[in-house]
Amino acid sequence: MATPAASPLLLPLPLPAFTFPPRRTVPCARRLVLRPPRAGRPRLRDPPPAAPPPAVEEAGEEEEDDDTLPLRLLEPPQEDDPFPPEMEPADPDFYRIGYARMMRAYGIEFLEGPDGMAVYASRDVDPLRRARVIMEIPLELMLTVTQKRPWMFFPDIIPLGHPIFDIIESTDPETDWDLRLACLLLYAFDVEDNFWQLYGDFLPSVDECTSLLLAPKDDLMELEDQDLATKMLKNQKRAIDFWQKHWHKTIPLKLKRLAPDHERFLWALSIVQSRSVNLKLRMGAFLQDANALVPYADMLNHSPDANCFLHWRFKDRMLEVMIKAGRAVKKGDEMTIDYMSGVNSSFMERYGFSSPTNPWELINFSSDAKIHLDSFLSVFNIAGLHDELYHNAALTSGENNFVDGGVVAAARTLPTWSEGDVPAIPSLERKSAQALQEECHTMLESFSTTIQQDQEILDSDGHIRRTREIAIKYRLHRKLLLQKIIDALDIYQDRILF
Ligand SMILES: C[S@@+](CC[C@H](N)C(=O)[O-])C[C@H]1O[C@@H](n2cnc3c(N)ncnc32)[C@H](O)[C@@H]1O
């Protein structure tokens, strides 16, 4: 179906709704097969028994995806070819239009880890000069909504006249991308044989989801961050108001069953916010920003030092997950991408996690004390400009792993000075370092619990709600960073003379 506002995104021909034609086996492609759901959250691992180890492809090659071509194009012409020699086969791209494809994965496994489902290397990968593909996900498996008018979504699964269409249409494409994608996701779950009906079994349930959209007020208070708690209460209210406005009592059953209660809508919104990516899609002559839920790639966890990145292949509308050039990967390593460079509260707001070693975390110091930036950096063998600071581990001899993202965050967030070649005066530097340590201690004391008490709560055997756990971890991570800064300033004072 096609209405002016809901025409199929990108594809000139309508796709069959996820009917996958029989494909020839590609020896290097290892396919992941969705298993029927088991009790609890199922795992995605399913290595086909007879598949030889996949050869990792090099990125950037626009190789023929011969898997999608009809056999005729791949075979030498036959003697009794009925076509006269002046006739030429059509461009291979012709056959790709609207072809329903599956995802492919190379040299990876999907496993349940400490941070939920995650992607791990199933073999060693030597560092290469070019990036390597580990996953390919075709557009037709994604749920996608464009950000600008005339807005479009893909796949075009909503029948003309369905009330969910009007609900999506009533939102602002530029600001309400998450509400719109949540509606599309809920609708996709309800469409028989839709890919997302199966994939939904592998998404975190309400109890497993870390999003603070699902946190009761008591859990938000555990954050001990009034700004973040207020923001999350506002975000919850926005979602509940939206649900109440559109899922009122007298709506037709086909709409009501998509989100019978507001918790279901909050869950769908949590999934969308914590798992979608921004894509730039080519729409005829111009580029369109779109938000997309990309299955399988959404199992990648975040790391500020990620070994992988996402790449959109315009030509055949395929999202690739690639290992960065020059990165060695060992079997069992987690494959990660960098979601964004942000402070812990931003990660909490959208994804529901924080880290004590987030190199972008900020502490607001009010003291006038400042330490000498270059001296501090050289004590810890940190180099680079403010936005690209990195630890040169090769210069650090026999010295445990003290320098981590927390020390990089300290270098960014501590008040510092630097005036050309003017050297630091050790006695003044020590005084400043001590003043800053004092302030860290004061901030630590302002929390209602200590580091040890938080750790005891998290280690206790009793069942702890997921959102309470991540709220306690958030305040703990802030305290651990403050402690790390205190320790780093101790080391700085010891070494400033040498
Ligand atoms: C895109 S999903 C990644 C797959 C997810 N682990 C799962 O179980 O399906 C994002 C979610 O993964 C978790 N996550 C990702 N990176 C993380 C990290 N570095 N630390 C803790 N949790 C993380 C958070 O729950 C986040 O909302």
Based on the model shown, name its key terms.
498 residues, alpha+beta, 5-stranded antiparallel sheet, 4-stranded mixed sheet, 15 helices, 17 strands, 32% helix, globular, disordered N terminus, binds S-adenosylmethionine, Rubisco_LSMT_subst-bd
How would you explain this protein's 3D organization?
This protein has 498 residues and is of the alpha+beta class. Among the domains are: 161-272, no CATH class; 371-495, no CATH class. Helices cover 32% and strands 14% of the residues. It contains 15 helices and 17 strands. The strands form five sheets. Strands 1, 2, 5, 11 and 12 form a five-stranded antiparallel sheet that branches. Strands 3-4-13-10 form a four-stranded mixed sheet, with no helix packed on it. A hairpin with a 6-residue loop joins strand 15 and strand 16 (390-391). The radius of gyration is 26 Å and the shape is globular. 34% of the residues are buried. Bound molecules: S-adenosylmethionine (SAM). Residues 115-118, 204, 210, 274-275, 298-299, 301-303, 351-353 line the site of S-adenosylmethionine. One of its GO terms (cellular component) is chloroplast thylakoid. One of its GO terms (molecular function) is protein-lysine N-methyltransferase activity. It comes from Oryza punctata.
Topology record:
Blueprint: E1 57-58, H1 71-74, H2 92-96, E2 104-105, E3 108-113, E4 116-121, E5 132-138, E6 143-146, E7 153-154, H3 163-169, H4 177-190, H5 195-199, H6 217-221, H7 226-246, H8 253-256, H9 262-275, E8 276-283, E9 286-293, E10 301-302, E11 308-313, E12 318-323, E13 334-337, H10 344-350, E14 371-372, H11 373-379, E15 382-383, E16 390-391, H12 405-413, E17 416-417, H13 426-445, H14 451-459, H15 466-495
Parallel strand pairs: 10-13, 14-17
Antiparallel strand pairs: 1-5, 2-5, 3-4, 4-13, 5-12, 6-7, 6-9, 8-9, 11-12, 15-16
Helix pairs in contact: 3-4, 4-9, 7-9, 12-15, 13-15, 14-15
Pfam families: Rubis-subs-bind, SET
Domain SET: 106-340
GO molecular function: protein-lysine N-methyltransferase activity
